[in-house]
Amino acid sequence: MKRYLALLLAIILIASVLAGCGGKEVAPETEIEVEEVDETKEEPAEKGPTVYRIAGSKTATLNPHIYETTAESDTMLFIFGNLLKLIYDEDIDSYKFIGDHAEGVPTKNEEGTVWTFKLKEGLKWEDGDPLNANDYEYSYKMLLDPKLKNMRGPQVFDADVVVVNAKKYWDGECAWEDVGIKALDDYTLEITIGFPVPEMDFYLGFTNGGASSPVQEKIYEAGMNEDRTETNYGTSMETTPSSGPYKFEEWIRDQNKIYVRNEYSPIAEIYTVDRIESRVVEDANTRVQLFENNDIDSVVLSGANYDKYSEDPRLVFSKTTGVWSMFVNMTSETKPFLRDVNFRKALFYGMDRKAIAEDIYKTAVPAPYVVSTAKIAAPSKGLAYRDTDIGKNILPENNGYDLELAKEYFDKAYESYGKKMELEIQYFDNSENMKRTAEFLEQEYENAFGSDRLDVVLRGVPWQNAYDNMENGNYDCGFGSWSGGEFNPWSSMEVYTQGFTSKIDQFGNDEFDKLFERTVRGDLIFKEGERLQALAEMEEMLLDAVPFVPMYEPQITSIFADRVHLITKGKYVPGIGFATLQSEYDPLD
Amino acid sequence: MFRYTAQRLTLLVITLFMIISVSFFVLHSMPGSFITDPKMPKDVKKAIEDKYHLNEPMIVQYGYFLKDFSKFDFGLSIAIQPKVPVNQILATKVPVSMQLNIFSLLLSLPIAIVFGIWAALKKNKLPDHIISIMIIAFIAIPSFVFASLLQYFIAFKLGWFPIVVSTEKVLTWNKFKSIILPILALSFGSIAGVARYTRAELCEALNSEYMLLAKAKGLTQVQATTRHAMRNSFIPLANIIIPMFTGILGGSLVIEKIFSIPGMGSVMLDGINAKDYPVAMGVLFWYSLLGLLTILIVDLSYGIIDPRIRIGGRK
C-alpha cells in the first residue's frame, strides 16, 4: 500500500513540475518559425535590425501618473511620447528641443502666462486609434483627479511650471473647467500658468515620456474600479499603450522587456536602434559578467568592478545633480557647540574630500560646494553654473581641506564651549561606503582636533529613519543629499528655504528666501546675469552658515561594448546622457 | 484521529489569526511611508496616505483590513507593483520559485538519502569521512556563495550554462539548462541536512537491540537493515522532509537575485521595506498558513508512517 502511495506521490510531483512549467503554448512554435526563417536566409548582405541590449532594474509600474523610479522613467522615454522631445544635435554638439506630438515649441502671450501648442495631424496610438489634443486634456484631468490622488499630480502644481487651479482641482475644490489646461480643438492645446517662467523651464514640463505624456482614455477607463479611485493602467503590456518611438513586443514583469519601433511615432526616424532588449538583472556582478560575455552592450561599474576597468578608455562618466553632504544640527538644544559656526567651519575645513571621493567612492569627485557640476545655469548655451566665473570664484582652495584653518576654528569653538565635545554621526546602515566615510571622518576629526577634546561616535540608521531624524532635528550630524532638475539650479534651492515642508537642515535666512523667490517667481527670472549672481549669493550664504558640510558629487561610471559607437563620443550631454538610441551599432555576431 | 485533526485545525485558525493580527500592528507601527519622494509637499503626501486610510487610528485600519481579509482579499499593492492585486502578484511569482524548488527537491532527496545510508553503513570508514566533510561544507557555506561560485566558474568562465535564467515562458531544454545552476545552489543545503539526519538515525537503528534480534532470527545484515533499520530510521525524517515539500512555494532571496529569477524570494522583503502593507500582509498570511499546515501534516504523518503511534486516541 505504501509503495503505491509513494508511486502516486511521485506521479503527482512530476505532474506538478510539468504544470508549474506550463503557460501559453505559443512560444515554442514561434521559436521554430524564427529558426526556419533564419535558415532560409542565404544572403547575409541584408543588414538585420540594430539591437541594443541592456540590463536594468525592476519596474513597479508604467502608469505615468504614479511612477517613482529611474527604471520606470527610462522605460517611459522609450514608449511614451509627449509634446516635445529633447534630442542630441550633432551639429551643435548639445541638446535640442524638437516637436514630438507638437509641431514645434509652443507660442505664448505677452505676459508669458498662456502657452499654446499646435499638435501634428494624423497622430496615432500604437493600436492605430487617433491621438489628439483631447487625449492630452483627458490625461491631465486624470493626473489631477481628486479621487485618484496620483503621486505625480504635484508635477503640475508644485514644480517649475504651476498650472492655474491645478492644485485646487487636485484638492477637489474647483471644477475641471477652471483648470488652465484646455484642448481648444483637436490640434490645439492651451496651458495657462500662474506666473511666467523661462522658456526652458516651460518646455521641460512637456518633454519626453513621463507624467505629462498622454494616456489612452479607453484603456485608462477600462481599468478603473467602481468608485474610480484606482486604475490598472500601466500594470501590464496590454494596459500600456505606446505613444512614443518604441512599443512593447514583450514585457515579462521583473524579468525582461523587448521594445520595437512604433511605426506611428512621428519622430521614430531620429533613432538608429530598431530593437531594445532589456533584462532585469539586479546583481551588479552578474551584470558585469553579462557584459564581459557580450550578452549586454553597457554596464554601470562600481567598487571592485570599477577598479578592474579604471584604465579602460571606453569608460564614460555621467554627472548627477546631487552633492552628498554631512548635515549638522545647527539649532541643537542639547549640544550648544553645534550652534557655533566656528565648530561647523572646523568640520568643513577638516574634511579631506579628495580621500572620501577617490579612495572610498572611487568614481566620485570632491565637492566643497552646494550646486552640482551638472546644473545648467545658461540653458541657451548649455553652460553649467560651475563652469561660470561666478561659480568658480566661490570654490575654496584644495577642495576646502585646510587643517590649520580647521584647527583655528575648532580652538575658538572649544574655548567657547569649555569642555570635551561628543559628536554623533549617523549613516545609512545599508551602505558600506557611507559607513567607511563615517569611520574615516571619526578618525580624521579626532586626530586633527584631539581625542581629548572631541569624541566622535557613529550610529547606523535605516535611511528613511535617518532623514526623519534630520527632519525632526533629532541628530548631531548625518549624511544626506538633495537632487533636482539639471536645468534649474534656482528651484533646487527651495529645499534650504524656511517654507520647504520636508526640510532636513536647520538653516533659516530671510534674505536667502527672498532671493529664492525672486529667482524662481520674481523679478530676476528673466535677467540671466543677475539671476546667476543671485545663485552664487545663495550658495555663499549656505557655505558661510554651514548647515551642512558638502562632501562629494557622485558620478555614474559606465562602459559600452565595442560595437556601440556613441554619437556624443563619450561626452555626457545634460538632459540626454550619451544619446545611445541615436548612436551607431555594429551588427551582432 | 478525526477529532484530533478538528482540534488542531481550530487551533491553527486561532494561531493564524493571532499571527496576522500581531503582524498587522507591528508592520503598521514601523516609521516611514510608502511614498518615497522626499520633496513631495506634506499636504499632498497626507492626502495620498488618507486615500489608503493610513492616517486613521490603527484600530480603524485594522477594521478595514479584517473586512477584506475575511474574503482572502489583501487588496492592491501600493508600492512594489502599484494597483496590482496582491494575490495576482503572488500567483505570478509562486510558480517561478516552485519550479526551481521542485527540481531541487527531486535532486536533493534521493542523493541525500543515498549519501546518508552509505555513510551510516560505512560508519567511521573513508566514505563516511568524505560524506561527512561534504555535509559540513554544504551546511557551513551559505547557498548564495555556491550560487556565486557556480555562476562565475561554470557559467561565466567555462560557458557551460547561461549566466542568468532564460526568459522563455515554457520549459524548453534551454530554459532547463539555464536553471540547472540555481537548482544546484539550492540543493546543496538540503542534501547536507537530509543526509546528516539519515546517517544519524540509521546509525542509531543499526546499533539497536531489535537489529541483534533480527540477525539472531537468521536474517542477513542486508535483510535486517532494509527491513527493520531503514524503515524505523525514516520515521523521524518526516520532520524535515515534509517541510521540504511544503517549502517549495518559497523563494531564495539571494539566489534569485544572482540568477535574475523573478520568483518569490524578494517579495516579502521588498514589501516590508517599501511599506507596501497589503503585499507584506498577503505574503505573511500565505506563508504562515503554509507553515502551520506543515506542522499539522508532520504531526498527522507520524500516525500514518508508523501505525504504533496513535494520535488523539482514547486511553
TrEMBL record, chain A:
InterPro entries per record: Peptide/Ni-bd, SBP_5, SBP_5_CS, SBP_5_dom
Gene3D superfamilies documented for this protein: Dipeptide-binding Protein, Domain 1, Dipeptide-binding Protein, Domain 3, Periplasmic binding protein-like II
A Pfam family recorded for this sequence: SBP_bac_5
Signal peptide: 1-19
Entry's Gene Ontology cellular component terms: ATP-binding cassette (ABC) transporter complex; periplasmic space
Membrane topology annotation: Lipid-anchor
GO process annotations (BP): peptide transport
Keywords for the protein's UniProt record, in alphabetical order: Signal, Transport
Entry's localization field: Cell membrane
Presence of the UniProt keyword Cell cycle in the record: no
Residue ranges of domain Solute-binding protein family in the record: 98-498
Coiled coil: none
Keyword RNA-binding in annotation: no
Molecular function terms from GO: peptide transmembrane transporter activity
Domain of life: Bacteria
Family: Belongs to the bacterial solute-binding protein 5 family.
Name by which UniProt lists this protein: Peptide ABC transporter substrate-binding protein
Organism: Tissierella pigra
Automatic annotation (TrEMBL), chain B:
Pfam family name, one: BPD_transp_1
PROSITE patterns linked: ABC_TM1
Membrane topology: Multi-pass membrane protein
The keyword Transmembrane helix is annotated on this UniProt entry: yes
Predominant location: membrane
GO biological process: transmembrane transport
Cellular-component GO terms for this entry: plasma membrane
Signal peptide boundaries: none
Record keywords, A-Z: Cell membrane, Membrane, Transmembrane, Transmembrane helix, Transport
Transmembrane segments: 9-30, 102-121, 133-156, 176-195, 237-259, 279-305
Keyword Membrane: yes
Domain ABC transmembrane type-1, chain residue ranges per copy: 94-302
Subcellular location: Cell membrane
SUPFAM superfamilies linked: MetI-like
Top-level taxon of the source organism: Bacteria
Family membership noted in the UniProt record: Belongs to the binding-protein-dependent transport system permease family.
Name by which UniProt lists this protein: ABC transporter permease
Organism, as annotated: Tissierella pigra
